[in-house]
């Protein structure tokens, strides 16, 4: 079971299942683009101030790094964040704030697709240590200690509801970092999958105490660099995609688990594994996408499915069968959101296409100090015809700037899928005919994810 220091939780603030997410088919214009005819103007991106406002909190949780979400089958949506600011906002400034290394939020999923919750509908959970001070929502508990003898810290970057052996459960993936005895820098200790059972019958603030922690660390290269401990490190759980249509060995669905590897010359590469969703914490069930487009048991035989990606990413499926990957451009300082496409969760993936450069327009922040990163999509929370995307606003100007409540919070935009440029929906060579047939068959049909929500009062 998971362990929160002091075995106590602090609830701050006031509250569908991530699935094989079908959003919308891009219409016949896409077929014209494949035949060499221009079909789209520039991508149309709309700021979503109502979504921004939902996370402009004034007490307790007042900021967080990253913003990964999953709709749940009881009609709620869970969010997970890595480094989090806890404190108050008074007179337009953060006061008496402190950092904790992760947190979670929850709210009722609005009935209208694409609608944002009210700020007062949000409920957040953090941990509380033995001194009754704010602490991480999840404290790593896999028996791996850092140089200081402590459990290290866990930064969640993905979350999803999946089937389990005896009911639904929530999984969250993230990186396990260790503090150094020198007090400077962090070490990579591996990757942790957190599994929350019985979430339907337990209060939200008790989920972390009842979670189990699983080490999912895997090297895909066997390489090490003595002078750079972060080189060749492979970080699993960067994103999940659940294929519910699977049968046989993966009854209940294949869960695809994505990894990002730090590679040479500042490059980052993506790898993917899959496992039966009901047994994903058992590493013996994992297979890795490898040479010859085969699924292999040895992670050292895995091959990268794409390059030039950051540590945050998502994979969604359009109703025409096209898979869409959203991530920030590498390096983060470019403030550009990228889109890729493929015909299967493992690819082959297209080269990244820029769809939005975030304007550097936050008052009182020097444009040279902006950091925008962590772009991810929220397919289940999108309205028909659009894809909701969030990113993190940050600054390189030092911790003092974090007194500004506009910094270190998720920001939201919506991509009009009908405006996606031809270069973005052109999947890799060899898949064009497949895509054209899919688009011809689907037209502009709109498909929402399957919902199996039950009223909370009806939960067993």
Element layout with pairings:
Layout: E1 8-13, H1 29-34, E2 44-47, H2 49-54, E3 59-64, E4 68-71, E5 76-81, E6 84-90, E7 93-100, E8 103-108, E9 123-128, E10 134-135, E11 153-164, E12 167-179, E13 186-196, E14 211-215, E15 234-243, E16 254-262, E17 268-276, E18 287-289, E19 295-296, E20 306-307, E21 313-317, E22 323-328, E23 336-342, E24 353-357, E25 370-377, E26 386-395, E27 410-416, H3 422-425, H4 432-442
Antiparallel strand pairs: 1-9, 2-27, 3-6, 4-5, 5-8, 6-7, 8-9, 9-10, 11-12, 12-13, 13-14, 15-16, 16-17, 17-18, 17-20, 18-19, 21-22, 22-23, 23-24, 25-26, 26-27
Give me some keywords for this one.
six-stranded antiparallel beta sheet; 460 residues; Tachylectin-2, Chain A; globular; mainly beta; disordered C terminus
Write up this protein:
It is globular and about 60 Å long. The protein has one domain (5-458): 5 Propeller (Tachylectin-2, Chain A). 6% of the residues lie in helices and 39% in strands. A hairpin with a 2-residue loop joins strand 6 (84-90) and strand 7. With 460 residues, it is mainly β. Strands 1, 4, 5, 8, 9 and 10 form a six-stranded antiparallel beta sheet that branches. Strands 15, 16, 17, 18, 19 and 20 form a six-stranded antiparallel beta sheet that branches. It has a four-stranded antiparallel beta sheet with strand order 2-27-26-25.
CATH topology: Tachylectin-2, Chain A
Task: Work out the number of β strands.
Answer: 27
* Major beta-sheet overview: 6 strands, antiparallel
- The CATH homologous superfamily name equals Glycosyl hydrolase domain, family 43
CATH architecture designation: 5 Propeller
Decide which structural class fits the backbone. mainly beta
Number of domains: 1
Mean pLDDT: 80
Name the assembly state: single chain
The percentage helix is: under 10%
Query: Ranges with pLDDT <50 over ≥5 residues?
Result: 1-40, 429-460
What general form does the structure show?
A: globular
């Amino acid at each position: 079971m998971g362990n929160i220091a002091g075995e106590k939780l602090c609830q701050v603030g006031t509250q569908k299942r991530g699935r094989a997410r079908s959003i919308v088919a891009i219409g016949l214009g896409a077929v014209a683009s494949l035949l060499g005819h221009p079909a789209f103007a520039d991508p149309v991106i709309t700021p979503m101030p109502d979504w921004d406002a939902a996370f402009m909190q004034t007490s307790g949780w007042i900021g967080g790094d990253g913003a990964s979400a999953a709709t749940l089958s009881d009609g709620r949506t869970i969010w997970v964040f890595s480094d989090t600011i806890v404190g108050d906002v008074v007179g337009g400034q953060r006061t008496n704030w402190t950092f904790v290394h992760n947190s979670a939020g929850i709210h009722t999923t609005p009935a209208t697709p694409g609608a944002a919750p009210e700020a007062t509908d949000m409920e957040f959970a953090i941990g509380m240590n033995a001194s009754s001070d704010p602490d991480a929502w999840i404290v790593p508990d896999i028996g791996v200690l850092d140089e200081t003898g402590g459990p290290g810290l866990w930064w969640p970057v993905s979350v999803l509801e999946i089937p389990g052996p005896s009911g639904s459960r929530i999984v969250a993936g993230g990186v396990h970092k260790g503090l150094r005895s020198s007090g400077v820098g962090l070490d990579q200790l591996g990757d942790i999958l957190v599994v929350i059972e019985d979430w339907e019958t337990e209060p939200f603030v008790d989920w972390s105490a009842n979670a189990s922690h699983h080490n999912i660390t895997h090297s895909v290269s066997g390489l090490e660099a003595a002078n750079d401990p972060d080189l060749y490190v492979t970080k699993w759980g960067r994103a999940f995609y659940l294929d519910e249509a699977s049968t046989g060995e993966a009854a209940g669905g294949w869960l695809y688990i994505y990894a990002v590897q730090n590679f040479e010359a500042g490059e980052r590469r993506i790898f993917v594994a899959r496992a039966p969703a009901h047994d994903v914490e058992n590493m013996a069930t994992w297979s890795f996408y490898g040479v010859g487009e085969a699924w292999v048991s040895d992670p050292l035989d895995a091959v990268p499915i794409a390059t030039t990606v950051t540590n945050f990413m998502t994979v969604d499926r359009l109703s025409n069968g096209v898979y869409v990957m959203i991530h920030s451009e590498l390096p983060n300082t470019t403030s550009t959101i990228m889109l890729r496409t493929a015909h299967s969760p493992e690819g082959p993936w297209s080269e990244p296409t820029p769809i939005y450069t975030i304007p550097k327009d936050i008052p009182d922040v020097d444009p040279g100090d902006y950091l925008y990163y962590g772009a991810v999509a929220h397919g289940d929370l999108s309205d028909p015809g659009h894809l909701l995307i969030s990113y993190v606003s940050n600054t390189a100007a030092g911790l003092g700037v974090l007194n500004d409540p506009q910094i270190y919070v998720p920001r939201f935009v919506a991509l009009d899928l009908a405006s996606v440029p031809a270069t973005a929906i052109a999947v890799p060579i060899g898949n064009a005919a497949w895509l054209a047939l899919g688009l011809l068959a689907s037209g502009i049909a709109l498909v929402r994810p399957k919902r199996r929500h039950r009223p909370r009062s009806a939960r067993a």
